[in-house]
Each structure stands twice: as C-alpha cells, then as structure tokens.
Fold:
Amino acid sequence: MGNLKNQMFSSYQQNPELYDEIYDNKGEVKTIYKKLFDIYGEHSIKDYVKLNDKAKSSFFNQGITFQVYDKKKTQEKIFPFDLFPRIIDPTEWEVIEKGAIQRSKALNLFLWDIYHEKNIIKQGIVPMELISSSVNYLDQMNGIDPPGGIYNHISGTDVIKHNDGKYYVLEDNIRCPSGVSYVICNRTALKRALFGVFNHYNTCSVTNYAENLLDLLETVKPKGVDVPNVIVITPGMYNSAFYEHSYLAKTMGVELVEGRDLFVENDFVYMKTIRGPEKVDVIYRRIDDAFIDPLEFKPDSTLGVPGLFAAYKKGNVTLANAPGTGVADDKAVYTYMPAIIKYYLNEEPILNNVHTYHCSRPDELKYVLEHVHELVIKPVDEAGGYGISIGNRLTKAEIEKVKKQLLAEPRKYVAQPIMSLSVHPTYIDGTKSFEQRHVDLRTFTVLGKDKEFVLKGGLTRVALQKGNLIVNSSQGGGSKDTWVLKN
Amino acid sequence: MLARVANNLFWMGRYIERSEHIARYLNVNYFSSLDAPNTQSQDRQFVLRSMQFMVGDPVLNNEVLEEEKVLYKIGLDPNFPASIINNVKQARENANSARDLISTELYEAINKFYHFVLKYNADAFVKNGLHDFTMNVAEMTAILRGKIRGTLLHDSVYAIIMLGVNIERATQIIRIINAKYHDALNAQGSYGDKFSHSFEWTTLLKCAESYDMMRRFYKKTPTSISTLEFLILNPNCPRSVMNSLNQVYHHIKILDPSKAYNKTSTAFLIGKVRSEYEYKYIEEIEEDIQLFIDQILKSLSEISKKMEKEFFNY
Structure:
C-alpha cells in the first residue's frame, strides 16, 4: 500500500518556507489528516481524475454554475472545486468561532454608535475622518434604530493562517457577504464523489445554516408583527450569485423576490402574489445599498423598490443587513479593530489583526520608510486592490518612488507586514498532480437579537495559480470543502 | 406565490410538455414511415414535410427537403425558436427563476435534461442518433412529470405547473391531430388506402402514445372516427383533449376554489369549454374537423390569456 500512496503524493513538493496545512514542522502528516491521506493513497491518480469528473458533473447537475460570454454563445462554467478537503480541528475552530462572534458584535456596536451618539469619535479612539471620508457612510441612517438593534446580521470574516501558525483576520465583510451556498454544495459534491471518507471522520454538518439564518432573522422582526413574513431579494437570475439567493430562499422556505415583485404603500412593503398583495416584514437583501431604493439612493436603479427606505425608516420592515453597514468594513476601520473591540466589549481581540502602521504618525512613518521592502503599502481610501504596493516585489527604483509618495501624502497610506497564507495540497488539472496552493477561509456569522450563530465550516478558497496569494473566484480561485471536526 | 414566478412555472410546464411531443412526433413519424404500407407514406419528403408542419413551419409543395437539415432544425438548431433544444432551454430558464419553489430533485432533473440536450452531438443526431435522442427526451420528460408529481407539494405551485402541462398537452395533441389529418388527406388515392382507413391514424395514435390502449378499447384497426373519438373525447385516455380539459379544470379549482358565480374568472371559462366538449359526439366534430381544430386552439389560447390576466399580471 505504501507504494500506492506514493502515486498520489510522490511528486508533492514542499516549500519549507510555507506553512503546509497537512504537514507538521517535522514533515509528518498531521494526525487529523492521517486517515484521509491513507484513504486517498489507496487510489491512483487515474481514479482521482475520474472522481474529479464525477464531482464536476455533480455541480453541473445541481446547476451551480456561472455564465461566461464569448462572441458565439454563452457558456456555463463551474467554479473550480478541489476534492481534497481542508480539516480544522475542534480546538482551532473554537478560536475562530469565538473570534468571529466577537468581531461581529463589536462591529455592530460600532455601527450603532457612529449612527447615533458617536462616542467612540468623541473620545478620540477613532478619528472623525474615518466616517466623514467614507463613501459608505449613509447620512440617511443617522438616528435610525434598526429592529432588534442589529446592523450586520450576516458577516463574512476572512481569516488566514500565517507562517507562524496563527490565524489572522484579513477582512470583515458585512455588506452582502456571499459564498455560503458553495460551502454546502462543496460538501454535497464531496459526499457524492467520496462518500467513504466521511465514515472515518466526525465532521460537523453545514446544512443547518438556512434554518439558523431564518431563526435569527425572525428575532429582528419589526414591532407589532407576530409571525414575520421573511423574504430574500435578488437582483435577478442573471446575477452571478443567483444560485446562492435561490438556495437560501429555498432552504429557508421563503419567497425569492426581485424588486419588481414588491411595492410600497403607506410605508408598508408588499409583494405581488397570485392572490394579490401580501405584506412583507423582514427582507434579506442581496442588493447593494445604492440600489435598494431609487427614491433615496441611485435614482436610475431598477433593482430596488421605490419607497423601501421610507418604510424602513418608519420601522415597518427590517432590512438585513441594514443600509450603511459598509462604513464599518473598509480598510481604514479594519486597522482600528483591536481598539474597537476593546472599547465596546472590554475584551482583548481573540483573532489577530494584521498589524498596521499608520503613516500619518511620524514614528510609524519612519519605520515604514525603512522597511518598505518587507511591507505592503495600501492607500486607505481605495477599494478592490487598487494602488497596493507589495514591498518584496518592487525594484529599487520603485521602492524609491513609493517612499516619495509616502512622504508627500503620509495620511493617505497605511502599511502592513506581508502575510504568508498557509498552503494546502490541491489537485492541479494541468500537471495531474497535487501541489501546494495558498488558501484562506471565509467564515459566516449570523447575529440576531440576543442570539448568534457561526456556521461550523466555511469556504476555503484556493489560489489556483502557483505562488498566487489572491484567492477570489473572480481571479481564478477555487474552493475546498472544509471540515470542522467534532470534539 | 409571486405572480411573476407563477408565470414562469406555468411556462416551465408548457415547455417540458412541448419538447416531449415534438420529440415523439419526430420519432414515430420517421420510424413508422420506413415500412409504411404505401409509397406515399413511405416517402421521405412526405415525412419531413409532416414534421415541419407539426412544429408550425410548413413548407411549400415544390421545395425539396434535405433530411439532415430538417432533423437538425427541429432537434438541435439554436436559431430555430421551435426546436427541441430551445424548448428545453426555455423550460430550464423558467425553472431557474423559480428555483427556490421547486424541489432540488425536480431542478436537478431539469438541469440534467438540459445538459443532455445541450451536449448532444448534432452530427451524430442527424446521421444515426434520431432514435436515441428522441427516446431520451421523451423519457426525461416522463421523469420530470414524475418529479413534479412526486416531489412537489400539491398546492398552488403544483397546480400552476399542471395547468401549464395540461393546456400544452391539449394544444400539442390537437396540433398532432391536425398534422396527421393533413397527412391522411394527402396520402389518399395511393394504392388501396382510403382516408377513413389510412395508415396515418395508426401513426397518429403512436405519436400520442395511445395506440395500444386504443386497440384494447375498440379491438379494431383504427379508423378516422375511432381514432379521433379516442384522442379527443375519451376522458380515460390520458392524452385525450377531454382528459386534459378535465385536468385543467381540476387544477384551476385549486387556485380558485370559490363556488360563487363569476363569469369573468378563468375557472368559469375553463368550465365552459370543458362542458362543451364533455357533451359533444365525434360525428359532430368530424363533419368539419378543420373548424373544430381552429376553435379548440382558440379556446385554449383564450384560457391561457385569461390566466395570465388573472394570476400573472397583478
């Protein structure tokens, strides 16, 4: 059997500088991966290719696809899915889960504060510019009390493991974080292809997400409503996340609507059914702030519902997530997260923040200027990865250029150490073998009134190109089923 | 249920049903003609014309058709709106937008169906895949009907889909009757084959998967009158127009259970059309079959339009 094992992993090359999820520091397979490693070893790479195809067709049949347009015709594609699951042991998971809840709660309190008294600013813990300069801050939300006091009902926290073996948060996504349906589909696909392996592990289920989501959404119903009518709103079936929207609606057993199916009368929201209008109480919206109501925001939006915001303001309908949450998930706020957690919860952060140097502070600027080659320099007000300089990829001339920019506008920049994402064996189609690829983990946290839930699992995203650190699906990233083991 | 989504489900039902009838029509006509008892019915041109006629794309008499082109057009041509591939695409598109309401089992079956048709090699289809392809289409639609019946809640969602299925079934059966009626007329005069005993009636029954049961019921070779009676008026024949109308009436009552007199409702109109055919006899219809065909198609389209107004266009 030993020989066969080699067929799968004989050509697996380990870079000693990277943290490999399945090997310990002595180069031995970790205990939690041992069984899986052995089971996979019984197969040849040929078997594996076959299973891989099986998994792919499972995605096609489940209709979990996105469309690619070229000149002749539209083509359906599936997101790359890797059959080698990632395993997280229960003690490690506990840290992630507690940390994710802590951050979500702190962000919720932060949002309440900055849309009400703004104490955190008055006390000088975060600067006023953080809000005044943010395009995601909605003046309309000032003084509004969202039902149940919850802003970020659903949070997607992106964590990575650095080469020191510790988890760090890279980003908090609290607008419309997506990806949870892939967690469940990945599990389904893996079960279909390799059901045998599940017998050897005690893995937490991921299918309970929708029931918990509905449960928590019902806790934030508007006042005076007994049994709330919950719905999901989608931009429509051509949206790339439509599968997820329909999946969530189906598994919650609620209606999936588009903007054109709703209307507002006397500040109440109704949907148009085959039996006439039906009142709606809680809307899980998968449409961005700017598009939800043409009367209040982008006037040319056809995705939203005219008058929706007025109904929300009156407290007649709940929006999840609340409008204006985006102000709390941008990069600038991220750098203050340890202080924000401390201020509202009086706790130390459970998950590490990547340390951030503010170039506006002279002593920190000095450090940054001396260490540009080992830092990532980011502008505070740009999104989508624009204007980022990665120190160890720069030429000498480029470093000098960056230094000049920093000196000219120090307030505009922050710097962080270059993080090394852990790697995980991943099947690569091109070479028909397993190779190390960088991974991250998106977790999903749901906040309700005095209740919370973290999905035990998450979306492990894989950067499929060698050496690449960017795991986003738009950049050719794939994903893995993620097993959180039971205690 | 949302009005918009109801509309999509209605059309999902219609497109599923439609693709099956077209597939079966191609199959039965092609293969039964191969050893047909008269030269006219055996003629390739005759069969290809009949196929084009059935999908609403009749050809001029002097035009010579190429078999592979006709088969491709009706089967897999994405640019021909009535092709099987387009019907399946539409069925799936409509299912997509109502994905949250239907069962995973039903959706996966539709999706599998879609990928089967999409991936089917066009060259193989026109050269030697006609039987394989059309049989698979017919079988997959049967699976879909099974999933609709067996995995959905029998509530308004189900009623809407079944309304679509049955209105479409009645429509397609009439279109098939129309096409074969024309074939029977055209095949007249060839050796020993009178209209009323035309070989085309057998083909017609096979197109509606009703040949064996018809033989059991009448115990005689099909004639024009017994065939039409069976396919139009026999309420126990699952493909008959009468049966479809009964089904339509049953399902509209789930959507609109009111017993009050309301002459503007869809249920009222359906009841009226249904009663008309319930008490007809076949001799009345046979007197002017073309008139009957035009009238019933008109009634069915009125029902469909009325439904749209009452339920889909809030």
Chain B has a mean pLDDT of 92. The two ends of chain B are 12 Å apart (CA to CA).
